[in-house]
Amino acid sequence: MTQKSAIEKIWESHRIAPLGESNDLLLIDRILLHERTGGVAMQSLEDSGRVIRHPSHVFVTMDHVVDTIPGRSDTTQMPTGKDFITVTRDTALRAGVTLFDLGDPRQGIGHVISPEMAIVLPGATLVCPDSHTCTQGAFGALAWGIGSSEGEHALATSTLRVQRPRIMRITIEGEPGVGVTAKDIALHIVSELSSAGAKGFAIEYAGPVIRAMSMESRMTLCNMATELSAFTAFIAPDETTFEFLKDRAYAPKGEEWVRAVNEWRKIKSDPEAIYDEDIVINATDIAPTISWGTSPQQSCPINKRIPLFNEVSHRDTQESYQRALTYMGLTPGGRLSGLRIDAAFIGSCTNSRLPDLRRAAAILKGRRVAKGVNAICVPGSSAVKAAAEAEGLDLIFKAAGFEWRESGCSMCFFAGGESFGPKQRVVSSTNRNFESRQGPQTRTHIASPETVAASAISGCITDPRRLGART
Amino acid sequence: MKPLRQITSIAIPLIRNNIDTDCIIPSREMKSVSKHGLSEGLFAGWRYTEIGGRTPQPDFVLNDPAFADAQILLAGENMGCGSSREHAAWALSEYGIRVVIAPSFNPIFRGNCVRNGILPIQLKPQPLAESTGPLTVDLEACCISNEAGETWTFTLDDEARTMLLEGLDPIDITLKMLEEIESFRTHDAESRPWIYLGKASLT
């Protein structure tokens, strides 16, 4: 029998019909929408006189545009945000899909709440008009980001016409050192493979380091696959996955749960499966990692100097290297550690889940954010926020001088409302350090929540191991 | 969608690697729940002297009058990386761009282009940038030529090529297969009942 990868198996089990040389018509099990791109997709569908084929498989959240300051309403700091919220709400209600609205305890960032409620399940296909949908591949699902038009297609037909990706396996071996998290591993991989390094590929993460990871860490790792231009990322489900999903709102129950888990255990790659690319990364060699430029590939170990051009010339042009340094106000070979910062941000679909907040709080406990540093924590979902408050994490963040916010995407990106300001240097647990991503001319360094916390305390970019990061 | 068979135009050279969709259309320029009204915001961060302003940045290529009516854009590696926002394709299309040529594309951006009548051609842009005068892109022949008679061929998968040539709406095509889709779902529901959520299944 042909040996197959798990991704191929899920793909084939969803193939309704082949569509020529490299495309297939695939069944889509779950559609997730948000107010930034979902409202326009549902409205456009309505305008064309079409209907959502299976509304019970469609879930809508408010995360991208909503404010995260306490006491928020439909009125947003983003000048026209209210339109996005109301159009999304109205079209969702008319279509009869499930809406997690403002004020709903289930509201939050799509890629945080979908796992929380077991909307995503092993072996399922899930799409969302959001590039970080690959996050949910951590559950052994085939989950990928699409555009709004494809969103309309999925809504109207419960299918997508998709080009088959090639498969890349990335095996992570070794033992991550103290203070080295899934975020550091993800940044290390992007800096090694480049921002286009997995273009055309679906990545299967495998190996002992993955098996030992919590679901939250797996999500962080898979989340950054889009920063490699991958189609998606995937991790075969195991007992950690099943343990996480059991008894959650949309998980199967009773006998159906037993039957489902039996099926899910079969979702793994055959031992002799052939991969189009097969890469091994040794986690023992990875240090806490932080970005220095304006693309996630422009990252390096926090305790090293900014690379010289000849060290990165295999993936950066002279122009993009110089442009990034000028934008960031840095010099070739300069030190990152010790660089004064203006702000610290913990949040986003990459790093805003309960364990992320716990690890950051462990560093913040009993300490104060340095004078002049604007420090903000935005839990990934209303449920994460409530759980964090139940164990007193909010008090630690607040006592340290962090703002404690309502859940949402918040300042992961600048939508025209809140921003960090020109030339402000921010250490951020988010996923993109593009030019003006967090505000006009804002200088973003992406890193783990631990590095953000340690840097906020010191007032400068700081290796979290110096402040006692333990995991 | 407007069919695309042949385009003759000069090409705008914006050959930078990793042009992300935040650069193509900054989030702050996506002001309304609409696919329209976006061309002014195209490349806003590079095109104007200040954030939110509309004073042209004189040294940015889009502001060069020589390229005012260009329909072809030349870009670098990993074009359209980052956010999945289809507004990037809508803004390009509204601005008048029908062809983007780059050594590689981000997959979501590439798909968004095809669905909005923009032809993504995977090709090294430098030789085209060095060519003088207009280029003719012929999608039927999968060939680019210039006035000097030089030619470059490219490939595109059948699905994308047909959609672009005919200006088809993929939803219409897929809806013709509805019976097959529903029959597939019925069978699938027997082996994976937990996927099929009725209103009653939520406890």
Which terms would index this structure?
heterodimer; A: alpha/beta; Aconitase, domain 3; Aconitase, Domain 2; 3 domains; 5-stranded parallel beta sheet; 19 strands; B: 203 residues; alpha/beta; Aconitase, domain 4; 4-stranded parallel beta sheet; 8 helices
Layout of helices and strands, plus pairs?
The complex is a heterodimer of chains A (471) and B (203).
Chain A: H1 6-13, E1 15-18, E2 23-27, E3 30-34, H2 38-47, E4 58-61, H3 81-95, E5 98-100, H4 110-116, E6 125-128, E7 142-145, H5 148-157, E8 159-163, E9 166-173, H6 182-193, E10 201-206, H7 208-212, H8 215-223, E11 232-234, H9 239-245, H10 254-264, E12 277-282, E13 289-291, E14 299-301, H11 309-312, H12 318-328, E15 343-346, H13 354-364, E16 374-377, H14 382-390, H15 393-400, E17 403-404, E18 425-428, E19 443-446, H16 449-458
Parallel strand pairs in A: 3-4, 3-6, 4-5, 6-7, 9-10, 9-12, 10-11, 15-16, 15-18, 16-17, 18-19
Antiparallel strand pairs in A: 1-2, 2-8, 13-14
Chain B: E1 6-9, E2 11-14, H1 21-24, H2 44-47, E3 72-75, H3 87-95, E4 99-102, H4 107-114, E5 119-122, H5 126-130, E6 135-138, E7 143-146, E8 151-153, H6 158-166, H7 170-175, H8 178-191
Parallel strand pairs in B: 2-3, 3-4, 4-5
Antiparallel strand pairs in B: 1-6, 6-7, 7-8
